[in-house]
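TICKET: design request
STATUS: open
ATTACHED STRUCTURE:
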């Protein structure tokens, strides 16, 4: 009996010791902060993680500027840099222009990135797919689409969007068109699991409307938000797939500015951010009104979120969607776009995107916004990150002094049901880790559920350092 008691105590002590929170600091490494964009922590497991970034700079002197590159930095279990894989996606022919279109992790082993190149002298545009595999430690590049263009200045615009469930990507080539030409577009939807086309076709749209926004449903259908050409204040939503092309009717007094597609109970829905009409102002509301639209039934529920701010709804970013039962929670942020002045070395600088205030927004069974929680302010313009574990949400955002007792971009816990904040502390070096270290951009945060480990890259200019928090969820 005594032996059993001793054994029980020892097991309990061992479990408690194992469950203790531990913070490990990786060795600092450097990046080129002025050139690298879309930095994110990907492909994380208990052994390695990777930092992805893209260089998308057009320069006159190729030997000075790293022209067009995709980078994957491999970090070991302690967060120290062990290798860097670089894919140069630039065609060195004079006059060929390139553009990075977007990227996403496919599964535990692969990440896919899309780029385009266009060349007016040959009247062509080409889209490339670059797949990085951590098993091989290399990129594999493949041309997936070729289009004819009129010239470099009349090449149209290519968009890449990903479905919310991560299964599909859509390459949408909005061709250059005038009032005298048909509005013809090219649509390619790719199954990311197999990296093969789900469907691919040429789409002719009415010329009295122009494309404003598009999204991809979790069933692989493209929904376009279109605005009437000219001064008329009129909008329409049109859904296209390999087998259909139909309008999605809604209240003509409602003006959607941005589309986002989700699924609930195997049905497709749209969430649109917008306003009621041109004449009505929403008190300077950042997120104005939100419409929850059932694609199957055509039912629309419009809610006024009445948040403070001074932005329109054209650049709302959905950071995270969580669906539990009939409730839908979204973490969203407004984005501001500024365009730097041209320089002698860079005549065509890329626009700069800065994220504003984030908010948690929850819809009830009927599609009404029943709760919304503004996430402080965001003077640093960083991306909010939301991690789900059980009934808890762990949210990194900028919390002002007074709201939680500290100021800075840090992580807090929220109860999913009530969205009430919870105490979140990790003792490290005699102080609360989250109050004294803060967090970097939300793209650089990852949670590894299998090992209960939180990873984040703390970025200070060019210097980057990994912090690993073991036994994060208690």
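STATUS: resolved
RESOLUTION: sequence designed for all positions
ATTACHED SEQUENCE:
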């Amino acid at each position: 009996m005594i032996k059993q008691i001793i054994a029980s105590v020892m097991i309990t002590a061992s479990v408690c010791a194992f469950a203790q929170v531990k913070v490990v600091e990786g060795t600092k490494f450097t990046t080129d902060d002025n050139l690298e964009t879309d930095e994110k922590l990907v492909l994380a497991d208990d052994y390695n993680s990777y930092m992805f970034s893209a260089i998308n700079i057009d320069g006159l002197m190729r030997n000075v500027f790293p022209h067009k590159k995709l980078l994957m930095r491999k970090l070991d279990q302690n967060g120290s840099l062990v290798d860097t894989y670089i894919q140069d996606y630039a065609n060195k022919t004079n006059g060929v222009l390139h553009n990075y279109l977007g990227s996403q992790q496919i599964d535990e082993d692969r990440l896919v990135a899309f780029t385009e190149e266009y060349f007016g002298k040959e009247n062509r545009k080409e889209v490339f797919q670059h797949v990085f595999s951590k098993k091989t430690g290399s990129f594999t590049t493949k041309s997936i689409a070729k289009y004819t263009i009129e010239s470099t200045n009349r090449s149209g615009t290519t968009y890449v969007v990903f479905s919310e469930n991560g299964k599909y990507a859509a390459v949408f080539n909005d061709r250059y068109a005038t009032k005298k030409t048909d509005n013809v577009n090219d649509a390619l939807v790719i199954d990311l699991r197999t990296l093969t086309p789900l469907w691919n076709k040429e789409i002719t749209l009415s010329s009295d409307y122009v494309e404003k926004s598009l999204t991809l449903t979790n069933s692989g259908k493209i929904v376009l938000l279109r605005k009437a050409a000219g001064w008329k204040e009129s909008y329409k939503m049109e859904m296209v797939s390999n087998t259909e092309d139909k309008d999605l009717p809604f209240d003509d007094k409602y003006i959607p500015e941005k589309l986002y597609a989700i699924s609930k109970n195997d049905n497709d829905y749209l969430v649109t951010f917008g306003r009621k009409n041109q004449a009505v102002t929403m008190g300077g509301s950042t997120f104005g009104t939100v419409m929850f639209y059932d694609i199957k039934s055509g039912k629309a529920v419009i809610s006024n979120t009445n948040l403070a701010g001074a932005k329109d709804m054209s650049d709302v970013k959905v950071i995270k969607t969580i669906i539990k039962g009939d409730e839908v929670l979204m973490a969203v942020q407004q984005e501001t776009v500024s365009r730097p002045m041209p320089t002698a070395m860079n005549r065509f600088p890329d626009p700069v995107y800065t994220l504003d205030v984030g908010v948690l927004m929850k819809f009830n069974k009927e599609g009404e916004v029943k709760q919304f929680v503004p996430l402080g302010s965001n003077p640093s313009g960083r991306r909010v990150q939301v991690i789900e574990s059980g009934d808890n949400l762990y949210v990194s955002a900028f919390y002002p002094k007074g709201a939680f007792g500290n100021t800075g971009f840090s992580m807090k816990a929220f109860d999913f049901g009530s969205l009430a904040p919870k105490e979140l502390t990790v003792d490290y070096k005699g102080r609360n880790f989250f109050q004294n270290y803060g967090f970097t951009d939300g793209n650089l945060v990852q949670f590894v559920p299998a090992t209960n480990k939180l990873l984040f890259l703390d970025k200070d200019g060019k210097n980057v350092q990994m912090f690993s928090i073991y036994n994060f969820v208690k």
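CLOSING REMARK: Helices lie at 2-18, 433-436. Confidence is low (pLDDT under 50) at residues 2-18, 278-286.
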